[in-house]
DNA sequence: CTAGAACTTGAGGGCACCCTCAGGTTAGCG
DNA sequence: CGCTAACCTGAGGGTGCCCTCAAGTTCTAG
């Protein structure tokens, strides 16, 4: 897989130009930016883009796989922190920061792209770590005991919209939203919840089936 | 304005068919449903649709103005409730219920359509009432004192996404999300917030500038 | 019943994006 | 240097939605 028959040098170069262009445009305008624009920004024809990346998901994979990996690193760091609650908060804040900085990342935080296999694989790894962050904060009695990993999807969905809406007007407004949400996640704030949590597969489907 | 030169009878009938079709389709598929489809469902040509409603916003106005008014009625009811906190919760729950039921309403909860003047006017009225709901719950010491009306936009934005994502998989999941959020809004849960609230105009702009 | 204003119709031009493929270009091996 | 496979190109066909307008139809006042 690492050595998948080397590209000719010009092709390799074009590939890199495309990934760079995509990275920039995804960050600026989100994951749905027209492919033609990516090609133009890379200084390459649309045909070449399709030669290198048969579909948008392949391009997303090339751009984001590492970033989702970086998120996993954040999770590791959170787990290494002394205070479990602070680790939990640290992680959420950092992820939301990425959501606020990079429009493409924000899109990916709220919806899955099943065809982007590398990205999805990295996401799964991140999820395993997050599960541990949650469990650890709960064992310490800081995070409410009835919270599941799937509930965090609510946090990211909410942040996704808030970040999008306020990006231009008040780029840090999301911190306030997150803080309000966090106050609801503390064990000390917990009141009984009216609905059972999403099952993991349900949460998966929910992220996949999100249009717009 | 009430008597704006009566339409010919057939035109009036077509208008009603169009509004009914739009109401149904907005509810099913959201506010961005193709106009051609609305015309088809109404059994009328696309040209007729444009005769009656020069732009989508006019149609939105015709469909939603009353529903936003109904939301104001919810607010009045909330204000009439004995317990201010319960009034607050009642209001949020009902609005979120509407968001969950009607995809078009959900869209409107998260973004303004400045050209839809009647709808916007009704929204402003609802806002005045909501401000009172918030103030009353704060005075009773139940709602955190640092919360502003604009902060509720975060709630609605978040719910908008959650409702959209979970509608098919778990239609009541939003209740859990809302409950978590509510636990963060209680006075007893309050920790200092890291950011100042949005100013009212900022919140307005934020809802207007939301693409997707 | 008739005239003419009001209304309806749907084909069609515009636009933005998708993706393909025939024909021209280039890298790099021998 | 020459040859071939790999690569690039961009015009163009497909789709879906927007909105307009010239030509026909229908209502209604007189």
From TrEMBL, chains A, B:
A Pfam cross-reference name: TetR_N
Keywords recorded for this protein, A-Z: DNA-binding, Transcription, Transcription regulation
Domain HTH tetR-type: 12-71
The keyword Phosphoprotein is annotated on this UniProt entry: no
Annotation: DNA-binding region: 34-53
Superkingdom in the source lineage: Bacteria
Parts forming coiled coils: none
Keyword ATP-binding tagged: no
Signal peptide span: none
InterPro entries: Homeodomain-like_sf, HTH-type_TetR-like_transc_reg, HTH_TetR, Tet_transcr_reg_TetR-rel_C_sf, TetR_SbtR-like_C
Listed name of the protein: Transcriptional regulator, TetR family
């Amino acid at each position: 897989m690492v050595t998948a028959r080397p590209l000719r040098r010009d092709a390799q170069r074009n590939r890199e130009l495309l990934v760079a262009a995509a990275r920039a445009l995804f960050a600026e305008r989100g994951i749905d930016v027209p492919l033609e624009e990516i090609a133009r920004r890379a200084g390459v024809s649309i045909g070449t883009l399709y030669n290198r990346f048969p579909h948008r998901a392949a391009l997303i994979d090339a751009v984001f796989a590492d970033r989702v990996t970086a998120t996993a690193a954040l999770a590791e760091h959170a787990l290494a922190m002394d205070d479990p609650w602070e680790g939990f908060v640290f992680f959420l804040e950092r992820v939301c920061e990425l959501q606020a900085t990079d429009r493409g990342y924000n899109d990916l935080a709220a919806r899955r792209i099943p065809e982007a296999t590398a990205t999805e694989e990295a996401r799964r790894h991140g999820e395993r770590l997050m599960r541990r962050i949650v469990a650890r904060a709960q064992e310490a009695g800081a995070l409410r005991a009835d919270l599941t990993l799937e509930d965090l999807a609510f946090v990211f969905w909410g942040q996704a919209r808030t970040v999008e809406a306020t990006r231009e007007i008040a780029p840090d407004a999301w911190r306030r939203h997150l803080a309000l949400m966090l106050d609801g996640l503390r064990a000390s704030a917990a009141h009984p919840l009216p609905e059972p949590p999403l099952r993991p597969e349900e949460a998966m489907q929910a992220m996949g089936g999100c249009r717009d």
